[in-house]
């Protein structure tokens, strides 16, 4: 199997069985908050100062996109980022196309930002992003008066001609997606009158929180149909100071490793604990994991805390569909953890996993089967039979399909496998967690690059 792989352009990584992981670490800044901080800074009047920005490939694409639209974005020596914005409606006509790389959040939120400003942009992305659906944002954004063309099938490249005389929109989300919600709210900022999004199922609310911090006129109410979020447009945003907390979706990997590796105790400090993001923690508690939240505190409108995890005896559980939005990026690593539980873990409501950086449902099922784990998958569900704590067989090369979270999840699985687990390409890990390999090795994990194959 290893010999069949063409690794000429890739970065294969390998994880071996490891024990006694220990230490206190911090993971890089939250990806969702980082994108939004740069974007709202680019729209605000004055200088927004961002501490703890995630400096990953995805966020750097957003930085470059905002610079192309006329914002000034600078990194200072002390690691802080300074964004001088253009004012609502002040984006300039960019030259050439804007490439968002692997980032769905970047391209979809930026589409909202430009849809109500009379400029013309062409957005592109890498092979993975170019397969992902853009129709979900095109549908609401054309209602504002924007003209949008995509490739056949509603994919990138996408040309947007922003509306010169945008009209306000009321939109009920057909899919539980914070990206779609955010695109509509951001478009609404440059529209006379009120734009409303109704979300039947709560999704991450970083856009709403941050808009409030920038002084936007935004309000929320609970209705029978779900949460109604209304933004009044044409109000200037005021630059502010933002400290980005650690990304819970990145913290999930060292915490998972501590839970499944014998003799381990790891604390991740300064983790974002916004309730729209803590589904994995809830699930791990139900599975019986040794997981504690320490020193929960408030920071810049978000709850943060330290999360301590230790080797655990886990039991399989049913993870209900309604929890999916609060842990949508954590299913690959949960599937890896479930491989060590006593009994079966069933995850429901996973339709959205099919349209992430890869078809994550298929990629997880394929990778687990390759590693000797018993797995069953349906259209929107997954079942994993656990070993009850014993190592999984491993000894496979897992295809990552250009997906950072598939790569990291299977490297974690390999930390308790009889034979090493390889991932065909770890390059994409830089999109969200560039420090993943050194951070994990610092805790005692045996993960290495197989550069000789490159
Ligand atoms: C994100 C929302 C989620 C998530 C993605 C980041 C965001 O996507 O999977 O990694 O920052 O709004 P959807 O909104 O499409 O579910």
Mind explaining what this structure looks like?
With 454 residues, the protein is an alpha/beta fold. It has helices at residues 31-43, 57-68, 104-114, 135-143, 178-188, 206-213, 248-260, 279-286, 331-338, 360-370, 404-414, 436-442, and strands at residues 13-16, 22-26, 47-51, 72-75, 81-84, 98-99, 120-124, 147-151, 155-161, 170-172, 194-199, 217-223, 226-232, 241-243, 265-272, 290-299, 302-310, 318-319, 344-348, 375-377, 381-385, 392-394, 397-398, 417-419, 421-423, 446-449. The strands form seven sheets. Strands 23-25-1-26 form a four-stranded mixed β-sheet. Strand 16 and strand 17 (302-310) form a beta hairpin. Helix 9 runs parallel beside helix 10 (360-370) and helix 9 (331-338) packs parallel to helix 11. The two termini are 16 Å apart. Mean pLDDT is 96; it is low at 1-8.
In short:
By secondary structure, the protein is of the alpha/beta class.
Summary keywords:
454 residues; alpha/beta; UDP-n-acetylglucosamine1-carboxyvinyl-transferase, Chain; four-stranded mixed β-sheet; 27% helix; binds shikimate-3-phosphate
